[in-house]
Amino acid sequence: MGIEPAGLPSIRWDEPPEGPVLVLLDQRRLPAEETELVCTDVPALVDAIRTLAVRGAPLLGIAGAYGVALAAVRGYDVAEATGLLERARPTAVNLGYGVRRAAAAYWAALDKGAGQERAGAAALAEAKALHQEDAEASGRMARHGLALLDELVPGGGHRLLTHCNTGALVSGGEGTAFAVALGAHREGRLRRLWVDETRPLLQGARLTAYEAARNGMPYSLLTDNAAGSLFAAGEVDAVLIGADRIAADGSVANKVGSYPLAVLAKYHHVPFIVVAPTTTVDLLTADGASIIVEQRSGREVTELTVPPRGAGDEEVGGVLVAPVGTQSYNPAFDVTPPELVTAIVTEEGVISPVTGAGLAELCARSSQVTMS
């Protein structure tokens, strides 16, 4: 039996009798079960962010904004909550953007003489506005991306390779790169979605394959190191990935494994397309070398496992696949230089070729670019 479309949103604000809460679809438990995780305070949300119960650049921005609202509405220290949330994960620029935006609305309300309750309501309204804006941006990115695909890969059906997870699980809408592939599917123009398993935590196998199955898309799962043989066989028409941070020069930080795909795509003359909202652009980070890359636990590499499921359980555990004491290198992201990126697709349009000047010009159309 196929997987039915999920009824649980990735994130939602709820107000039960016992007080406001932030409810997350716990991505650590997918695809085996759809379970909601209820966060009643910011430390619980920070733990959910660090242990990947909630993840993906745009959704982290939304979660961060709701986290500030949660602290404000429940009467906690908003300044402390802001600091905790901003430091939860270092690479995804959207997280800090969402946190600062909701916090600014809160402090602005207080400066205008509003009480704690009204200031909390202002923070919540800003979080909800960001949530809606991201959903709308997702739809616009999908349209821009599909038009670009039709231009770069003429002649009918597309065979698309993607890495990590970029669908509704990371977005207020239907995602970033995945939303483009989904648009192609709905128009009958997707021949095959090639899904990298995405080691070491298998976000492709656990999450992207799950979303593709939910939507009835033609997809195949492959090990990360099998991608080269697909390129060599001429089975890939384009690569579609998301981004966790885009520097001012157009360098793209994304899930580790993205850079090797860019090199393969360049060699085989295959378009390498990045799809991300303008909230992922950080004009204060000059270049790729300036991007802070998160280093995660080596146990994610030395043990065959999935992310932790219990609150507060920051370590992962599973079956050993390397000798005890093995040293590991486990960056969560890598950086692709702009000369390997065919195009960056945002809700404001497409940049191709990718240059710092072109990125700045496009971002000038948006009020959501990280400037501070």
Largest sheet: 7 strands, mixed
Category by helix and strand content? alpha/beta
Overall pLDDT: 91
- Runs in which pLDDT lies below 50 for 5 or more consecutive residues are 1-5, 310-316
Trace the largest sheet across and list its strands. 6-5-4-7-10-15-16
Radius of gyration: 20 Å
- What's the number of helices? 11
Helix content: 25-40%
β content, as a range?
Answer: 15-25%
Count of DSSP E strands?
16
Sequence of secondary-structure elements: EEEHHHHHEHEHEHEEEHEEHEEEEEH
What is the molecular shape? globular
Distance between the termini: 49 Å
Word description of this protein:
The structure is a single chain. The protein has helices spanning 42-50, 57-74, 78-86, 93-111, 116-152, 177-186, 203-214, 227-232, 258-267, 299-302, 356-363, and strands at residues 11-14, 21-25, 36-39, 158-162, 190-196, 219-222, 238-241, 245-247, 252-255, 272-275, 281-282, 303-304, 319-320, 333-336, 343-346, 349-351. By secondary structure, it is an alpha/beta fold. It has a 7-stranded mixed β-sheet, with helices on both faces. Strands 11-8-9-14 form a 4-stranded mixed β-sheet, with helices on one face. Helix 2 packs antiparallel against helix 5. Mean pLDDT is 91; it is low at 1-5 and 310-316.
